[in-house]
Design goal:
single chain; 22% strand; 7-stranded antiparallel beta sheet; Beta-Lactamase; alpha+beta
């Protein structure tokens, strides 16, 4: 028999039992893990503290090294000055740097004698200068050193040729204080010529290192590249070498090799007293030197574990108290939880039977997931009510109703909306189909109507145009229209308005447009429709063929037969022309063009027949008249030949006795006769194309008269003037007559100048 439990019983039995088991397991795991984490964090803290303070010491030393490096670069620039002068500048610079950097004890520079004295040919020997503090008083010293050979320390710096830091040493000048020196070489063209150095008292590092104490019995120490303790809390280690004080540690951990390789490392080490110590070492890299120092922190392991054990005891006590509180809260929560669940269970049972109405609602405000569940159930009931009403309205044919989805995952709501959208789409497609059928019916009716109009009026162009444009305006609900037909009788290709209709009445207008002129001419030239919308108020007055109204749409369609534009239909409307209306007009334009072409052909045939009859009658009369004219023409030709011969003689005489030159209307030479070219002594190709004003120097008032002279010639006035000029050193005087020459259109096409030499007259 299966035992049934209520929710509160299941919570007490299963959850409380699980909590006790899980809580105990977690407590044991967390306690063990926390001890390990505390220990690890303590070591990480020590590592971070070592790196942080190593970086501080490194930044101090690097800042001082920058000073040495900057001075070496600066002194290299001063080297071009005389030795005594740039030595004075160096001393002044040392004093200023001293004032800004009180942590520095001494500045010194060493210059190779082979660089200072060209006669010094030995690879050793140097000039040494130092400025130092003695009881806070600046003192200086200058001397020659290494005259018999370089000492080991200086020789090593010289051979390396890069920045260096000296191993800590006891300073005589500072009365036994531990110091170090930073040195930066002076290199010129790859050659070592000197060294700039700074002396530092290491007492400020001792103060910093002594302050590093992450745990009560922990301590820090600073060690040089060769293993000398720069600082250590145990005075027996201070100034000593680690190889002498801790030889086992150095050998076991390869201590000095790691320091000299600038490694960051840590390890545990058991000392002679059996105490386990944690060592963490952080490198200190100084400038471009290759002798790094290192900062170490030593932490006793038992101090770290003491904190972890204390934390374990506190966690155990807190766990017991927490478990008791959890049991009490669990009992209270169980009663709080089951009440709202019972209400929701009752409501769900009613929904399961199909009972859903607007009165079914839950008002549970627990502020947790139960409240969310209750609100979700209430929302579901509201959603079911809305969907029921939605389906009912759709069933009545109301497809405009909308439904608010409960969420993006509301499958039922989406299905109902899809059903509504499908019904709407079906209705729209039905309406669209009906609209298309109406358009086709409308277009077919229009084609039938205009086919009858074209058939009835195919013998009268004027009446045909009136009927076409009137019925087009009516059928398209336009406001006005016009029909332009090409005028064959015009000298230029023009389109003349033969029919206009507007506002239910025929309009009498007379308008013509050349091909390419205005919208009508443009439509004819491009052989394509023009459909304008949103026309400005004054636009139609300027470019349209009808004028008067201010339409919102303008449609022009060419009437084309065999690539020939016979005319243009122009329609205006307050409404935009629809695509199917434009298609109808395009189809009608083809039929209208064909009919107009037939009308024109018939009309021309009739005219030709009438003209042929008239011409037959005239032929007989003209034949006699032609015979008489031939006789007169023969005598005229004889007279013309005689006058031509006389004219040629006159021209030859004129060429022989005068100088002739022809200009275009702008004053450029077109031709010159041989006599004039010979007198001028200029090649003909240089005269042709030159301007009348060439080589003339005219004042402003003369230029005005000159322009007036040519302006009167272009108007057809004959002008005379006397000109004086020098040719090949001889003065000449000419009487010049300028005569305008007209073309067959009666326009002045060129100017003939006849010049007569009157030099000796």
């Amino acid at each position: 028999m299966k035992i049934k439990f209520k929710i509160w019983q299941k919570i007490i039995i299963f959850i409380l039992g699980a909590i006790v088991v899980v809580f105990t397991s977690i407590f044991i795991f967390i306690s063990q893990s926390s001890r390990k984490i505390i220990y690890t964090n303590a070591l990480d803290y020590s590592n971070a503290l070592a790196k942080q303070n190593a970086y501080q010491i490194e930044s101090w030393l690097n800042n001082d090294m920058v000073i040495a490096r900057t001075l070496s670069a600066a002194f290299l620039e001063y080297k071009a000055l005389p030795f005594d002068k740039w030595q004075g500048l160096i001393r002044n610079m040392y004093s200023r740097v001293y004032a800004e950097n009180p942590q520095l004890d001494a500045f010194w520079d060493s210059w190779e004698l082979s660089n200072l004295d060209p006669k010094w040919d030995k690879p050793y020997g140097r000039h040494f200068y130092i400025i130092y503090k003695d009881n806070n008083v600046l003192k200086t010293k200058a001397e020659l050193r290494s005259l018999t050979g370089d000492p080991v320390t200086y020789g090593g710096m010289k051979a390396k040729g890069f920045e260096s830091i000296a191993e800590p040493y006891i300073s005589v000048l500072q009365h036994g204080k531990m110091m170090t020196s930073l040195a930066s070489p002076i290199i010129e063209n790859g050659k070592f010529i000197g060294l700039i150095g700074l002396d530092l008292v290491l007492s400020r590092f001792q103060e910093l290192v002594s302050s590093i104490k992450p745990y009560p019995n922990s301590y820090a120490f600073l060690i040089s590249n060769k293993g000398i303790f720069v600082s250590h809390p145990d005075t027996s280690f201070f100034k000593k070498n680690i190889n002498d004080k801790l030889p086992e540690l150095v050998k076991q951990e390869k201590f000095m090799e790691k320091i000299q390789r600038s490694e960051e490392f840590n390890f545990t080490y058991k000392n002679k007293n059996g105490e386990t110590l944690y060592y963490t070492m952080a490198p200190i890299v100084i400038g471009k030197t290759k002798t790094p120092w290192s900062l170490g922190i030593v932490v006793p392991k038992n101090e770290v574990m003491a904190e972890a054990n204390s934390n374990y005891n506190l966690n155990f006590l807190a766990g017991i108290i927490g478990l008791l509180v959890l049991v009490i809260v669990l009992f209270i929560f169980t009663n709080y939880l089951t009440g709202p669940i019972n209400k929701m269970t009752k409501l769900l049972q009613e929904v399961a039977t199909g009972k859903v109405d607007k009165t079914m609602n839950l008002n549970i405000r627990t502020g947790d997931e139960i409240e969310v569940m209750a609100d979700a159930l209430s929302a579901s009931i509201v959603g079911i009510n809305n969907k029921t009403e939605f389906a009912r309205l759709i069933g009545t044919g109301n497809l405009d109703v909308d439904l608010t989805l409960l969420s993006d995952e509301d499958t039922l709501g989406k299905s109902l909306i899809d059903m509504r959208d499908s019904l709407i789409k079906a209705r729209e497609e039905e309406n669209k189909r009906k609209a298309e059928e109406e358009k086709v019916k409308w277009a077919n009716s229009g084609l039938t109507l205009f086919a009858e109009l074209l058939r009835q009026n195919n013998d009268n162009q004027s009446k045909l145009g009136d009927e076409i444009i009137k019925n087009l305006v009516w059928y398209l609900n336009a406001i006005q229209g016009g029909l332009f037909i090409i005028n064959d009788k015009s000298q230029h290709e023009e389109y003349e308005l033969i029919a206009a209709f507007a506002f239910d009445r025929k309009r009498i207008l007379h308008k013509t447009f050349a091909k390419g002129e205005g919208l009508v001419g443009t439509c004819a030239a491009e052989k394509d429709i023009i459909n304008l919308i949103e026309i400005p108020q004054e636009y139609i007055e300027i470019t349209s063929g009808l004028g008067g109204a201010n339409p919102n749409a303008l449609l022009l369609v060419p009437l084309i037969v065999e690539e020939e534009v016979l005319g243009v239909i122009e329609l205006t409307s307050f409404n935009r022309f629809k695509d199917y209306e434009i298609d109808l007009v395009k189809k009608l334009a083809q039929n209208i063009a064909s009919t107009l072409h037939s009308v024109n052909v018939n009309s021309r045939t009739s005219e030709l027949l009438e003209k042929s009859q008239e011409q037959a009658e005239m032929m007989a009369a003209q034949e006699e008249e032609m015979r008489q004219n031939m006789e007169e023409l023969q005598s005229t030709q004889e007279e013309a030949s005689r006058k031509t011969f006389e004219l040629e003689g006159l021209v030859n005489a004129l060429n022989a006795s005068a100088y002739l030159m022809e200009y275009d209307t702008k004053g450029y030479v077109l031709s010159v006769n041989d006599s004039y070219q010979a007198v001028l002594g200029i090649p003909r190709d240089k005269i042709i194309g030159s301007h009348h004003s060439q080589d003339l120097k005219l004042a402003d008032n003369q230029m005005i008269s000159y322009e007036q002279f040519w302006s009167e010639l272009r108007r057809g006035n004959i002008k005379k003037q006397t000109s004086k000029f020098t040719i090949n050193g001889m003065d000449h005087k000419f009487l010049e007559t300028y005569t305008p020459i007209y073309n067959h259109h009666g326009e002045v096409s060129k100017i003939l100048k006849i010049a007569v030499d009157i030099t000796n007259a």
